[in-house]
Each structure stands twice: as C-alpha cells, then as structure tokens.
C-alpha cells in the first residue's frame, strides 16, 4: 500500500505521480532500479529534479517526464507541487512554466514527430510552450470561477470558429470541466489528435447520447458523434484577443 502523506511535508510531482498510480515506494524501487534513499530524496524535494532524473520512472508510471516535473501545471495531472521549485531540463536550464503560471499548449507537434504521441493508456502527450501565463487571483476566482491548476491556455489555429474566434486568438480552458453541459464552446481532440475549439450541443433525446460539433464559420460542416467517442479537453472560459 502507498503510504499516507505526513502533514506539512512538501512533495514533488514524482510523489504525486506514484500516488496517482496507487503504487508503493517499494514497488517503484524494485521496478526502476533506483535506491529507496534516492527515491525518497527525489520525492521530498531534497534533490532539484530535472528531466533526466525522471526518465527511469516515466514508463513505469505511464506519465511523461514533463508531466511528472510539471505536476499540477501540465494537462492530465493534478495535485500540489512544491512552491518555488522551478523545473529544470537535462542541462540545468529552466523548463516549462514557472510555479504559479498557467501553461499554454504548443499547437506545433514535437520536433521529429508528425503527430502527438500516444501513451499506453490511450491519452495523448501535448507539448507545452516554455513560457506560461499569469492571471490575477481575483480574476481566476471571481470571473473564471476556477482555480489555476485546472486552467490551460490554447493558441487557436484555423478559421472554423470565425468570427467568434479568429486564428491566433488564445482561449482559457477549464480542464476540470469535461462534460458538454451546458452547451457552449469546448476544447476537444480532433481526428488528427490536435486540440481544437468547437461549439458543442448535447443531443439529450438521442440514445445513445450524441453531441453535435458546430463550427461558427458556415463554410465548415458540422458533425454529430456519440458522446462516448468524443474526447473533451475542457470548457472554454474566455478568449484573449489582440487588436
């Protein structure tokens, strides 16, 4: 069994990734070949983690090194991380958004890859930009009605949602809202594995339940899919426009 968290202790993303997989420290030590003392130091923030530290654990825990390093700020992860711990890459340089920043997805695939990679559990690994976004605490709480760990910024491409959203506009997405109710704008996974914004309408009378995927641009066709086949990344809360 995984050990309970001791009050007041600050853990790194490695600890939360292991807990999320309900794996004991003993099992992870056995499967990774890393000593129990080294694992304890990594989980408790006694060693400043870098991507190369996390590679032995990534395949076992079925999270990427980036997800573990940026736990709580990377899509598909959750839970607290150690305040003030700036992630580092293999060279020791800053990696990804700093603590307190909202990550932004990179619309371009990873170098050398024509599409986003697929994990063993069927989820996708979306690259994030090195710089994140800061939003006032009151704006997030009172206007977006959300919390920073749930938020994600998406740089939109294409004209399927014009005039509502123009190419290059950025939207703030609540990744904790993945049910298409109420009807509205959502970030979804398209057939090419990219994350795009569409207007969703839940067809409640259909059996099984279906969802109408709507493009605000009349030149782009709409479609209907079973709810079970639709991957929703989150609900669009607002759009950031440049004039």
Q: In words, what does this structure look like?
A:
By secondary structure, this protein is of the alpha+beta class. The chain has 2 domains: 78 residues, Orthogonal Bundle (434 Repressor (Amino-terminal Domain)); 104 residues, Umud Fragment, subunit A (Ribbon), CATH 2.10.109.10. Helix content is 19%, strand content 20%. The strands form 2 sheets. The protein has an 8-stranded mixed beta sheet, with no helix packed on it. A two-stranded antiparallel ribbon has the order 2-3. A hairpin with an 8-residue loop joins β8 and β9. The protein is elongated. The termini are far apart.
Main traits of this protein?
single chain, 243 residues, alpha+beta, 434 Repressor (Amino-terminal Domain), Umud Fragment, subunit A, 2 domains, 19% helix
Q: What strand order characterises the main sheet? A: 1-4-5-10-6-7-8-9
Radius of gyration: 19 Å
Oligomer: single chain
Q: Tell me the major beta sheet.
A: 8 strands, mixed
- Enumerate the spans where pLDDT stays under 50 for 5 or more consecutive residues: 1-8, 80-86, 109-124
Please state the overall shape, judged from the principal axes of the Cα atoms: elongated
H/E element order = HHHHHEEEHEEEEEEE
| Structural class estimated from helices and strands | alpha+beta
In whole angstroms, how far apart are the ends?
A: 55 Å
Q: Give a count of the beta strands, DSSP E runs of length 2 or more.
A: 10
CATH architecture grouping of the largest domain: Ribbon
- Percent of residues in helices: 10-25%
């Amino acid at each position: 069994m995984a050990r309970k968290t001791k009050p007041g202790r600050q853990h790194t993303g490695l600890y939360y990734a292991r807990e999320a997989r309900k794996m004991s420290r003993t099992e992870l030590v056995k499967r990774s070949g890393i000593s129990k003392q080294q694992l304890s130091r990594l989980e408790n923030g006694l060693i400043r983690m870098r991507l190369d530290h996390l590679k032995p654990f990534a395949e076992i825990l079925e999270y990427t090194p980036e997800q573990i390093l940026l736990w709580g700020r990377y899509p598909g992860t959750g839970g607290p991380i150690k305040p003030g711990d700036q992630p580092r890459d293999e060279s020791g340089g800053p990696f990804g958004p700093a603590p307190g920043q909202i990550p932004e997805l990179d619309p371009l695939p990873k170098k050398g890859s024509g599409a986003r990679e697929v994990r063993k559990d069927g989820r996708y690994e979306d690259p994030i930009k090195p710089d994140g976004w800061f939003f006032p605490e009151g704006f997030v709480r009172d206007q977006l009605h959300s919390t920073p760990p749930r938020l994600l910024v998406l740089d939109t491409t294409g004209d399927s949602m014009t005039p509502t959203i123009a190419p290059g506009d950025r939207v703030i997405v609540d990744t904790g809202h993945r049910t298409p109710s109420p009807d509205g704008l959502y970030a979804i996974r398209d057939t090419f594995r990219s994350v795009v914004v569409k207007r969703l309408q839940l067809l409640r009378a259909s059996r099984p339940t279906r969802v109408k995927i709507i493009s605000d641009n009349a030149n782009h066709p709409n479609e209907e899919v079973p709810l079970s086949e639709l991957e929703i990344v989150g609900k669009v809360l607002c759009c950031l426009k440049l004039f």
